[in-house]
Amino acid sequence: MKYQHNRSVGALASVAAVGALALAADVCAQQAVQWRVEDGGNGHWYRIDILDSDVSWFAARDLCSSLGGHLATIASEPEYACVLPLVQSATDAEDCYPCVYIGLTRMSGQDWTWIDGAPLTWSIWGQVGDPVEPQGMMAQFSPGGFEPYCVPHLKWNDAAIDALHWMHRGVFTEWSSDCNADGIVDYGQILSGQFTDTNANGIPDICEVDPCPGDVVQTGIVAADDLGSLLAGWGACP
Ligand SMILES: [Ca+2]
Ligand SMILES: [Ca+2]
Ligand SMILES: [Ca+2]
């Protein structure tokens, strides 16, 4: 099987997603799935959340960040093939297919790039037009042209990056961080229970707890300069 699934944690994370966007509660949460290394993948995790109202690309980007991930970067055909079932199953309450944001941007006068800075070397455009907004454009999985929105469309389209667009409610999150450098994507380690994530921000507690709180000036050891820094700020705080 190509995927690993975890429905319950995905649903919990979606509750956090709603809070981050201050939206109402009707969110269709998918299971998070992994493109496993043993299947030739990158070990990253993916999930699409369909929100109950339209969002901008920027809001979608910030939502992914609040979950410890980023807007998905579909950088190759194998990665596209892996995540395609997610898009095909990402319907809203009316069984329609809202547009799903991905992490592809083009600022004014620049080439398309992935949100992690990687150049665009593979693409599957449905439609692409000329930039009309100063900030540039973004790509998304979306229905194309004048097709009904309840028809699955699995190619990319472009749109103004900072505007609300009708039926743009899908947020495609990819988790790739490995904060403890053990070669395993942290999100999966949270899902499996190997790591705790008390504040549910997608970052394991072990990467958020200061391992040496006495090292005030952060030299790697606790020494006199730390005490000096502490004494310099002695007294009532504003
Ligand atoms: Ca990717
Ligand atoms: Ca890790
Ligand atoms: Ca955390």
Describe how the helices and strands are arranged.
Blueprint: E1 5-6, H1 7-21, E2 28-29, E3 32-34, E4 45-50, H2 57-66, E5 70-71, H3 77-88, E6 99-106, E7 113-114, E8 137-142, E9 155-160, E10 168-175, H4 186-191, H5 224-232
Helix pairs in contact: 1-2
The protein binds calcium ion (3 copies).
The site of one calcium ion has 6 residues, from helix 4.
Description of the molecule:
By secondary structure, this protein is an alpha+beta fold. It folds into two domains: 5-175, Mannose-Binding Protein A, Chain A (Roll), CATH 3.10.100.10; 212-238, no CATH class. It is built from five helices and ten strands. The chain has helices at 7-21, 57-66, 77-88, 186-191, 224-232; strands spanning 5-6, 28-29, 32-34, 45-50, 70-71, 99-106, 113-114, 137-142, 155-160, 168-175. Strands 1, 2, 3, 4, 5, 6, 7, 8, 9 and 10 form a ten-stranded mixed β-sheet that branches. Helix 1 (7-21) crosses helix 2 (57-66). The protein is elongated. The protein starts with a strand and ends in a 6-residue tail after the last helix. The relative contact order is 0.16. Bound molecules: calcium ion (3 copies). One calcium ion (CA) binds next to loops.
